[in-house]
Amino acid sequence: MKRALITGIGGQDGSYLAELLLEQGYHVVGLVRPGAESYDNLAQIAHEIELQEADLLHQTSLTQALRVADPGEVYNLAAPSFVPASWDRPVQTAEFAAVGATSLLEAIRTVNPKIRFYQASSSEIFGEPHESPQTEQTPLAPLTPYGVAKAYAHFSARSYRQRYGLFACSGILYNHESPRRPLEFLPRKVAHGAAAVSLGLQDELVLGDLDARRDWGYAKDYVRAMWLMLQQEAPDDYVVASGQDHSVRELVQCAFLHVGLSWERYVRVDPALERGAAELHWLVGNPAKAHTQLGWRPEVDFTQLVHLLVDADLERLRTGEAATSMERR
Ligand code: NDP
Hints:
Layout (H helix, E strand, L loop, with lengths): L2 E5 L4 H12 L3 E6 L17 E4 L5 H11 L3 E4 L13 H22 L4 E7 L22 H20 L2 E7 L2 E2 L8 H13 L6 E3 L5 E2 L2 E2 H11 L8 E3 L5 E2 H11 L8 E3 L18 H7 L7 H18 L10
Parallel strand pairs: 1-2, 1-4, 2-3, 4-5, 5-6, 6-11, 7-10, 8-13
Antiparallel strand pairs: 9-12
Helix pairs in contact: 1-6, 2-3, 3-4, 5-7, 5-9, 7-9
NADPH dihydro-nicotinamide-adenine-dinucleotide phosphate binds next to α1 and β5.
């Protein structure tokens, strides 16, 4: 039986990836922080997976966890993931998103260098991009503490691949969403707002810059790309993106149209919510390499994504399920 270890298993991607690996017949071990509470996202598969506590910054704790779990594949997804918050906690972001990845690579090198390693890299490593769309060759130019930390981890994976021959891959993933995202992430906020307004539970939705553009995809599609990377003959880095950017205005329009409303009546723009210059860049990825080498294609497009987000929030609000509760959607 194949064995995989996932850090950040309780998050959006970790929980979807765990479900995918279970479907593929893997034994799945999740690495969680010491003292971690139970995870809503894992409620449906709790009896099928094993959780182990370990501190990402503590080398002995990591090597011990690897020895016990004995995985053939390690997916490193643990990191603070809300980019704006990285300005409030830059040191913590660097510790867990950058140093944590290096600790894990070092533990793998020590315990079993044959372990295949996936690093959750991010489009934020391109920051203010030198070109659009971005490819695996686009120079890194991160602007946020999150992007800087992810760039460090990205280079670490590459460096361990070249120096030690580790099977280390970085997936440069663009924004991907699901009903498991918390409300501070924009697509979820818009979906929840449209659903709440349509049910008469909310009068308006307050947003920042409607002209901001992003390349959005569906999380379940994106975790499949992670898995495919570790099934190849050789390790490599891949851009995983939809290849299409959409404005916040399009997102809002699509969400409100889905509940039969005209967004202009309910959306108020508050300039105080606009992001700073470091986050106003235009990021759109070119997934051609993932298409040709991995055979990866997203199954859910932008409109389908917005509809499924709105439908999930409609259901939650109708049934009174807590907004943060994350069932197996
Ligand atoms: P989530 O925030 O949903 O999940 C992040 C996970 O990391 C959580 O399980 C969290 O654990 C864990 N984590 C955070 N900080 C620590 C820490 N200090 N020690 C141990 N565990 C920690 O993020 P996603 O699932 O969306 O993202 C997964 C990965 O992919 C992240 O690394 C993210 O940066 C990256 N990524 C995500 C993108 C996206 O659009 N979703 C785009 C590009 C990259 P806990 O629940 O205990 O807090």
